[in-house]
Amino acid sequence: MLQARKASAEPTETQEPLREALARFDASGELLRIRGAHWKLEMGTLAEIVYRQERPPAILFEDIPGYPSGWRALSGATNSARRLAIVLGFPEPAHPLDVVRAYRDRMKTHKPIAPRVVKEGPVLQNVLKGDRIDVLKFPAPLLHEQDGGRYLGTDDLVIMRDPEENWVNCGTYRSMVHGPDRVGLWMSPGKHGRQIREKYFKQGKPCPVLISCGHDPLLFLAGGNEIRFGLSELDFAAGHRGAPYEVIESELYRLPLPAHAEIVLEGVMHPGETAPEGPFGEFTGYYAGGRSEQPVVRVERVYHRDDPILSIACPMVPPSDFSFSKCVMKAGMIWDEVERAGLSGVRGVWVHEVGCARMFNVIAIKQAYAGHAKQAALLAASCQSGSYLGRFVVVVDEDVDPTNLDEVIWAMCTRCDPAEDIDFIRRHWSGPLDPRLPRGVTWNSRAVIDACRPFDMLGEFPPVVQASGELRSKVAAKFADQLKRR
Ligand SMILES: Cc1cc2nc3c(=O)[nH]c(=O)nc-3n(C[C@H](O)[C@H](O)[C@H](O)COP(=O)(O)O)c2cc1C
């Protein structure tokens, strides 16, 4: 019998979150099983086909040609409001902002929980060393036609210890297969994993790493979003599930190995040892990063469960199999961060999928003072979760639904005077994946768009042409029969 995830911070001893979540997705019609899809281009193309449909499910690839039956790959685990609610332990949402609000409420009492160190766990069911190591033992997909190779880590968790401050960072960074015991990691400048790797390399030391390629979807939500520097994603995600993760000290570098992970590589990057990485179809819908020399991980151990489930994320022109989940998480995180910075009056935040879940973000406020809207815009554009690779931030009044693009564009067209109300921030944090940047440049500019009624015109701004709620309900009720769709 499956236990529902608790929405509170009460401890739950559920240690099989991925497999339990799968069963719950299945029971709620949120899982599509596809048999016989090949790792070479078929899994990636199927993800593209499914994610162009209305209300796309998660996809479980079974019977993958060339791999033992029982070995599976999973795409899109967190990518619907319902699946997110299952993973985060929230009530079934009626509107995407319900999940964002539930996240906001959770964060008011959220406390990070450190992992519990144990000696055993299913991830140790198979431990491969020496000649037995072959990362292509797993169905690492070639996702897109112009990709430079197969990627084992797309929806992964790269676990590293800061050599100076001793905390453990976990981030989702793609890992390309170079050979049976070699993978390349692509980490954008400024990412915590990259900062940590640079600390080792500056000291002339190798940088140890674990790469988990199948684990609790909550860890994916934490690993793929910008949590503050110094807070371990293992502790952050445990705070959401209300119980510590069980981890085993890895054999070689004593890094925390999630005891219930599906597949984990352990290895080390040596200063100066690189290989050509990419190109890879990216979340902006382009191959902007191209091919470049990137550090190589020498894989020295492979840990995996029996019948492992490889999790995959397939970037593409949005929407993708992970973009919706990023929108919800980012919206919740930006809302949380701007309020923690002291901003009042926030009524909603939404990050739009069409903006690649980073580049078109909207914040709705109830204006209380002159300058309030600009303060909201600048905070939303610069907080940790809204900063990297952003482009446009729009502030709207509380009567505009930030999730509704029609309403947002209408507000921009009718309440914003471009010369007065659009400002630019220059040299902001971006990266090589920004398709608009020349090679080698990793900062960009932002447009912050005040699409609120000007504060000094609030009293005289023309009223909106719209039936009152009361009139609308009365008339709708009176003509209900005739309004019914044929
Ligand atoms: C599916 C997915 C793939 C990602 N791939 C990469 C990547 O290859 N390199 C990178 O620097 N960031 C990538 N990101 C973004 C980072 O995971 C994200 O910025 C995260 O906050 C990084 O962790 P950090 O904040 O600890 O640096 C990806 C995110 C997702 C959701």
Instruction: Report, as a whole number of angstroms, the end-to-end distance.
Output: 43 Å
- Enumerate the spans where pLDDT stays under 50 for 5 or more consecutive residues: 1-11
What's the total number of strands?
A: 21
* Rg, Å, rounded: 23 Å
Query: Could you estimate the helical fraction of the residues in percent?
Result: 25-40%
Supply the number of helical segments.
14
- What is the fold-level CATH name, i.e. the topology of the largest domain? Pnp Oxidase, Chain A
- Biggest sheet features: 9 strands, antiparallel
* Global shape: globular
The average pLDDT value, as a whole number, equals 95
How would you portray this structure in words?
- With 486 residues, the protein is an alpha+beta fold.
- The chain has two domains: 17-77 and 110-312, Pnp Oxidase, Chain A, CATH 2.30.110.10; 323-457, UbiD C-terminal domain-like.
- Helices cover 27% and strands 24% of the residues.
- The chain has helices at 17-27, 42-50, 81-88, 96-109, 192-202, 217-223, 233-241, 323-340, 372-382, 384-387, 405-415, 418-421, 469-478, 480-483, and strands at 31-35, 58-62, 72-75, 116-117, 126-128, 151-153, 157-161, 168-171, 175-179, 182-185, 207-212, 246-249, 256-258, 263-277, 292-304, 309-312, 346-351, 360-365, 392-397, 422-429, 443-450.
- Strands 5, 6, 7, 8, 9, 10, 11, 14 and 15 form a nine-stranded antiparallel sheet that branches.
- A hairpin with a 6-residue loop joins strand 7 (157-161) and strand 8.
- Helix 4 (96-109) packs across helix 8 and helix 6 (217-223) crosses helix 7.
- Mean pLDDT is 95; it is low at 1-11.
- The site of flavin mononucleotide has 20 residues, from strand 8 and helix 5.
